[in-house]
Amino acid sequence: MAKVTLEDFNAFRELEGQQLPEGEWMTVTQEMINDFAKATGDFQWIHVDVEKATKYSPFKKPVAHGFMSVSLLSKMLEGVIQVKSAQMGVNYGLNKVRFPSPVLVNSRLRLVGSISKIEDYGDNGLKITWNCIVEIEGSEKPACAAEFLSLMFE
Questions:
Q1: What is the CATH number of the domain that holds 44?
Q2: Residue 96: partners with Cβ closer than 8 Å, 6 or more residues away
Q3: Low-confidence ranges of the chain (pLDDT < 70)
């Protein structure tokens, strides 16, 4: 299904309770994992030491940080929906997050989600509750399941 493009908040509100299109697959590379480690200061060997992870990890290769999956939600949502009148969007928080399955290096991920709630926020904003599942290609369990909140302003 193609990306949903809407003119304004009125059109966006009509999507409350609706499923979003499936996102495009993206590959999680070792370079992305290393960059995330640099940004967060989390250099645990299971993420960044390819040789050690190959030898000692139960997964036999490096795995991405769990929080990397969460950090990709904004980008993944951007890939499935656009509201043209929106001037700015910000992350607001998370109500629930789980990491049911590890993301092995070179795994492909995509977003499957829905909009569970849209509320007014201030004079020109909306608070959106997104139900997000980050699927791993070929895996029965997702990388991440999250109730993600964001704000959008016209």
A1: 3.10.129.10
A2: 145, 146, 147
A3: 1
